[in-house]
């Protein structure tokens, strides 16, 4: 296997880790609090010990899966602001609380655009969890019919393939029966997940994709890129979380996804080792912070110029290209197609430019919305005077 890296700004390795407790504001969205509260929201709910905090820590905080054994039970609502190509919030709701208790403001919890992820421990008797799921869905739908409902049938790592499918079928059937009894036309999605493999990242990818209005445009761009460059499969990854936000139309098979996702880890690890010495010096303080923080994340500063290729012994080439601070394209292609390097590079630059334009349109519409809000507030206060 051969590995090569390049970066046009002179850094040989420009991917590196950084600590970022709140994941920080971005240039892409205005960062005043009133505005951030309207980020799309992922609500994670489920019974106690079903695995909610483990999922949040593994996906968004890079906690190794086996360290979740030592997590304490969540006592109060925990919120993460995730800053990436789109900003969103993740709310971890304590398992012992019922969200429709009068102490909670249900409008605040369920009123925002986003998804409700309900986690069911598939290793346990899930009767009680199902009853809770149905109750929450029925109530939440009446508050916000736009909410997407996602059911994670979790901890499936210890289950046989047959048992997994039986469990999924059973949970699906019972849920659809409960919804039809309540005369609601909700279409929840069901995902088999575990923090011990890539399934949890794949499930989150699907959840997030549903919340991205630009998804069809991104998919079309990826389709064109693959068709014109001889690429067999391409994923557009959010590098921090390893969630893929879009892929081309070729079916996703787990092995391809895993190898592309692992490539990001390999490049991160190698670039961490070979990070320039002066960056090490700057980051000594940061390293101490990283040890204390559970919320360290991997950032691709200056990553728009990052490129890496890995050639496997079977002739397949994995290519990674940084698209912007948050996104990287990882694709699989045959060695003979990778040989047409100029064509590939040209097409990739066109792709990158198109992505920048897609997000620029979004930034401008967000900016316009913000100006409109400010104008309305100003008008209201003038009217009061
Ligand atoms: N085998 C297996 N165990 C898991 C998985 N995910 C989480 N766990 C374990 O499940 C236990 C409970 O996980 P938590 O994340 O604390 O559960 P929680 O739902 O946040 O619990 P509360 O905070 O009490 O609501 C921990 O021991 C985790 O290691 C998984 O995918 N597979």
TrEMBL record:
Protein name listed in UniProt: GTP-binding protein
Pfam families: Gtr1_RagA
Cited function: GTPase involved in activation of the TORC1 signaling pathway, which promotes growth and represses autophagy in nutrient-rich conditions.
Catalysis performed (reactions): GTP + H2O = GDP + phosphate + H(+)
GO cellular component, one term: endomembrane system
CDD domains: RagC_like
Originating species: Paraglomus occultum
Subunit structure: Component of the GSE complex.
């Amino acid at each position: 296997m051969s590995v090569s890296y390049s970066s046009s700004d002179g850094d040989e390795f420009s991917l590196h880790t950084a600590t970022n407790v709140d994941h920080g504001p971005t240039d892409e969205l205005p960062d005043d609090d009133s505005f951030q509260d309207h980020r799309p929201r992922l609500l994670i709910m489920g019974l106690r010990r079903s695995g909610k905090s483990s999922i949040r820590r593994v996906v968004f905080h890079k906690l190794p899966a086996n360290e979740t054994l030592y997590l304490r039970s969540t006592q109060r609502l925990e919120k993460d602001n995730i800053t990436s190509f789109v900003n969103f919030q993740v709310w971890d709701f304590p398992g012992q609380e019922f969200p429709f208790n009068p102490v909670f403001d249900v409008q605040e919890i369920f009123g925002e655009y986003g998804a409700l992820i309900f986690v069911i421990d598939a290793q346990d008797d899930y009767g009680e969890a199902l009853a809770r799921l149905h109750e929450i869905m029925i109530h939440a739908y009446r508050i916000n019919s736009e909410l997407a409902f996602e059911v994670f049938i979790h901890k499936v790592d210890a289950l046989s393939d047959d048992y997994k499918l039986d469990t999924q079928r059973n949970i699906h059937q019972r849920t659809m029966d409960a919804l039809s009894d309540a005369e609601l036309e909700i279409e929840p999605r069901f995902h088999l997940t575990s923090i011990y493999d890539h399934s949890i990242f794949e499930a989150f990818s699907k959840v997030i994709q549903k919340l991205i209005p630009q998804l069809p445009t991104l998919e079309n761009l990826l389709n064109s890129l693959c068709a014109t460059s001889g690429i067999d499969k391409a994923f557009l990854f959010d590098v921090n979380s390893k969630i893929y936000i879009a892929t081309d139309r070729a079916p996703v098979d787990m092995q391809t996804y895993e190898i592309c996702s692992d490539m990001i880890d390999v490049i991160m690890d190698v670039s961490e080792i070979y990070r320039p010495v002066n960056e090490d010096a700057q980051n000594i303080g940061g390293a101490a912070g990283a040890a204390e923080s559970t919320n360290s994340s991997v950032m691709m500063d200056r990553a728009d110029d990052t490129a890496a290729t890995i050639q496997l012994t079977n002739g397949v080439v994995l290519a990674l290209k940084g698209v912007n601070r948050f996104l990287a394209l990882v694709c699989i292609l045959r060695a003979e197609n990778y040989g047409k390097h100029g064509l590939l590079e040209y097409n990739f630059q066109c792709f990158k430019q198109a992505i920048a334009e897609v997000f620029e349109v979004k930034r401008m519409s967000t900016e316009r919305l913000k100006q409109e809000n400010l104008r309305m507030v100003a008008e209201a206060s003038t009217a009061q005077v």
